[in-house]
Design a protein that fits this description.
alpha/beta, four-stranded mixed beta sheet, two-stranded antiparallel sheet, 6 strands
């Protein structure tokens, strides 16, 4: 099965979305992993692909790159990178 593998920061992870953030206590629910409401999961569901969300809240571009070079890819994988520059300009790259 083709996998959609997403790398990025809190936008990719889905930080503060309702399934991983307790808004009443203003506290993260840390045992859940990435949000099922984050864009990688939504896109994977629409395309009927397996989702591997490797986003990490607060990740720098250097950390994202570290995860990329240490991931074992399959030939059929679709890889999406969400980089954030200077907290105001975001770039999206798609590789297949």
């Amino acid at each position: 099965m083709t996998r959609l593998i997403a790398f990025g920061c809190s936008h990719t992870y889905g930080q503060a979305l309702p399934d991983i953030w307790d808004h009443k206590k203003n506290k993260e629910i840390t045992t859940q992993g990435p949000s099922k409401y984050a864009w990688p999961q939504i896109l994977s569901d629409k395309l009927n692909l397996e989702c591997i969300n490797l986003g990490s809240p607060g990740a720098s571009n250097k950390e994202v790159w570290f995860h990329i070079v240490n991931t074992e890819f399959k030939k059929s994988d679709i890889v999406i990178l969400w980089f954030q520059y200077y907290n105001h300009c975001q770039k999206l790259y798609i590789y297949q």
